[in-house]
């Protein structure tokens, strides 16, 4: 469980970094990607075609698609863009108490937050 939780935190950091690069690379109204998948390489052509806003090639596809089971390292990632210039990401254990205990949260402020025990951390929880 500790390894899964460490992987979830590292994955959130990777997404945050990807969003910073995305926001400085692409000039879109929302500022950040509309979908987590937009940060990945869903088209599978990053090796041969220049990245675009909906196929940015900034994060691994295993992470970009970890919004559904089986997730990544025992965690599912919920990505939302509630308003232009914002995003939120929560990481919740696939099986609470088995694949992980804590829930994690981050947003455009880049502050990582945890709820112990989880499942769902929010902006109101303590920073890591």
Could you give a short description of this structure?
This protein is an alpha+beta fold and 128 residues long. It has helices spanning 2-25, 61-64; strands spanning 75-80, 88-93, 103-107, 113-115.
Report on the structure:
With 128 residues, this protein is of the alpha+beta class. The protein is 22% helix and 16% strand. It has a four-stranded antiparallel beta sheet with strand order 1-2-3-4, with helices on one face.
End-to-end Cα distance, whole Å, is 17 Å
Oligomerization status of the protein chains: single chain
Number of helices: 2
SSE run: HHEEEE
Class computed from helices, strands and strand pairing: alpha+beta
Mean pLDDT across all amino acids = 95
- The fraction of residues in strands falls at 15-25%
Total E-strand runs: 4
Give the CA-based shape.
Answer: globular
Low-confidence stretches: none
Sheet with the most strands? 4 strands, antiparallel
Q: Percentage of helical residues?
A: 10-25%
**In order across it, which strands form the biggest sheet?**
1-2-3-4
Radius of gyration over all CA atoms, rounded: 14 Å
List the helices and strands and how they pair.
Elements: H1 2-25, H2 61-64, E1 75-80, E2 88-93, E3 103-107, E4 113-115
Which features characterize this protein?
128 residues, alpha+beta, four-stranded antiparallel sheet, 2 helices, globular
